[in-house]
Design the sequence.
């Protein structure tokens, strides 16, 4: 059985998807763009966008009754691999050891011109 998770703190979906789906003790989030839910805008620069995307991820996990400490896997999509160091520096402030498994990919484009998008799998 699956349960739809929606966070009022995270920006509304920009397509036909849920913020997250919970099944059993697992939470699968959609990719979180760096959109500020209050303003509808994205901050400038890769570090600021990484922070906003991770804040949105945290809000979605909280809506599912999970925390960043419950994350077992992330996927990070970035528009320019040269932004990896700046994004990684911010990323490291949201997780503690043992760090979740992670994949990171450079992609040609992200929705709405974002520089970063981050999704996660958590085990509660």
Sequence:
């Amino acid at each position: 059985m699956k349960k739809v998770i929606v966070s009022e703190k995270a920006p509304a979906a920009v397509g036909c998807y849920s913020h997250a789906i919970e099944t059993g003790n697992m939470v699968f989030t959609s990719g979180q763009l760096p959109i500020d839910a209050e303003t509808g805008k994205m901050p400038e620069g890769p570090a600021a966008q990484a922070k906003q995307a991770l804040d949105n991820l945290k809000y979605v996990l909280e809506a599912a009754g999970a925390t960043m400490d419950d994350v077992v896997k992330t996927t990070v999509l970035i528009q320019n691999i040269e932004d990896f160091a700046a994004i990684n520096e911010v990323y490291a402030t949201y997780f503690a050891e043992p760090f979740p498994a992670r994949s990171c990919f450079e992609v040609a484009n992200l929705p709405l011109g974002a520089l970063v998008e981050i999704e996660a799998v958590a085990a509660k």
